[in-house]
Amino acid sequence: MANSPSGESMAHRIIRVIEAFDGEHRSLSAAELARRTGLPSSTAYRIVEELLAESVLERDGQLLRLGTRLWELVSRSSKVLGLREAALPFMEDVQAVVGHHTVLGIIEKNEVLYIERIGSNESTINITKVAGRLPIHATSTGLVLTALGPAEDQELLLRRRLKRYTDTTTTDPDELRRELAEVRRMGYSVMAGTIVQESTGVAVPIFNADGKAIAALSVVIPRLGGPLQTSITALQTAARGVSRALGWDGTLRDAVRRSL
Amino acid sequence: MANSPSGESMAHRIIRVIEAFDGEHRSLSAAELARRTGLPSSTAYRIVEELLAESVLERDGQLLRLGTRLWELVSRSSKVLGLREAALPFMEDVQAVVGHHTVLGIIEKNEVLYIERIGSNESTINITKVAGRLPIHATSTGLVLTALGPAEDQELLLRRRLKRYTDTTTTDPDELRRELAEVRRMGYSVMAGTIVQESTGVAVPIFNADGKAIAALSVVIPRLGGPLQTSITALQTAARGVSRALGWDGTLRDAVRRSL
Fold first, then answer.
1. In chain A, how many domains are there?
2. Residues B210 and B175 in one domain
3. Which of A9, A43, A50 is opposite residue B11, by nearest beta carbon?
4. Are residues A128 and A221 in the same domain?
5. Is B3 helix (H, G, I), strand (E, B) or coil?
6. Contacts of B82 in chain A (CB under 8 A)
7. Chain A: residue nearest B71 by CA?
8. Are A89 and A167 contained in the same domain?
9. Whether A130 and A29 share a structural domain
10. Where does the record place the HTH iclR-type domain (chains A, B) (predicted)?
11. Final residue of a domain: which of A57, A73, A89?
């Protein structure tokens, strides 16, 4: 259907236009937008006109930006919204008790995708942002969800070439395998300085009605003198509440049952 | 470009497919989806295949649902995200002080669109939901934003046929004009039972760097015995914080200056 000579579908080309906008490029001129999509200008301009007509894009003076329409359509039905609505009150509890950034993340296409973050306390460096991504092997969220996930995902991770962010980032497959086993045994992950020297991430799993670890609740605390035990306890308590709100009945899959 | 015989653009048809999903229809069979779009089945199926290839849709067993991709693309650049990120810490403050649902809303295409809601206290009936819409004339958010907005928007509202939700919903243009003037004078709106008998909405404006009222912060409290004065004070205090976070310098447009 309406594929270009390059074989790209219209949906693909529309996504390329939407994708050209990000946190650093919230408004773009039509020319910049065409350039960022890599589409022929005439194609890009026609798609822009179509998306303006649908209120997916809107004019911002001489520039273009994403309108509210797509956000509204996506938000009212996305599985992300259900998860974050269930988690938000419990995230507030964690933030109140621990006093540091509280973050909700999932694994999406081999990376950690953060879907909510609360807390205005800027006492430690936290590079997570909503709708931002970080690598699995360097984050507490990535490690706990991989450790409690399917064995094949662990093997895939161990076969990948992993980037060393700091001197405590584990990139050696054997060492990472031992760390995953330890996280599975403990039921939570603690990652000290693996992505930013000064910060420690602590993450616990959230289970769905099938007892599958579908998301992680985490805090980012100062590596030196941060409230580590308090964080673990608060997260474990809150994550049970979120899991229950998602229909979890308190039973766990085999891999997790051994440890918790 | 690739317009159908009916003259609809591809972007329009893709939006119709995405739009078929909502809070009550988070997962759909391909046949249900085709039916809800009103598109010819073959067209709907081809668009579904394209959207599956782009991870905009994903399979949920035998059904289809919106994937995370579009949420991610939209969230990282939408103006909604910047507003809600600025507002969220202050919404938590209001929720802590008032103890009732705290809501963030904007006006979008002649309706109120709610973009965030926090608070798990279920002490009063609150029909707002995230990415949900309510009518301007029956909500505190709609009235305060219209009262402080352009005069032409007020005239447009007064010319519309307005629905009476309860016996306190104002639908008479002359009465509504007086209420708008009163809201403009006070700088906030209080709507008692205008959409749900048992609840009162209280809303204050949030200003952007240009001193324009772009959103409203509101609470929904019990109509009988709810903390009305506390709500007004907490909202006024918090809204100044949100406005400042958006770059507002404390000066107001003429319409508002008179009152605050």
1. 2
2. yes
3. A50
4. yes
5. coil
6. 26
7. A74
8. yes
9. no
10. 8-68
11. A73
Q: How does pLDDT run along chain A (260 residues), one tens digit per residue? A: 445 556 788 999 999 999 999 878 889 999 999 999 999 999 999 999 999 999 899 998 899 999 888 888 888 777 787 788 889 889 988 988 898 889 999 998 899 999 988 875 455 666 777 778 899 999 999 999 999 999 999 999 999 999 999 999 999 999 999 999 999 999 999 999 999 999 999 999 999 988 899 999 999 999 999 999 999 999 999 999 999 988 888 776 554 554 44
Q: Residue A181 belongs to a domain with what CATH number?
A: 3.30.450.40
For residue A176, being part of any structural domain is answered with: yes
Residue type, A226: G
Q: Judge if A137 and A253 occupy the same domain.
A: yes
Indicate whether B53 and B176 sit together in one domain.
Answer: no
ipTM: 0.74
Cβ under 8 Å to B: A residues 23-62: 23, 25-26, 43, 46-47, 50-51, 53-56
What residue numbers bound the domain in which A113 lies? 78-257
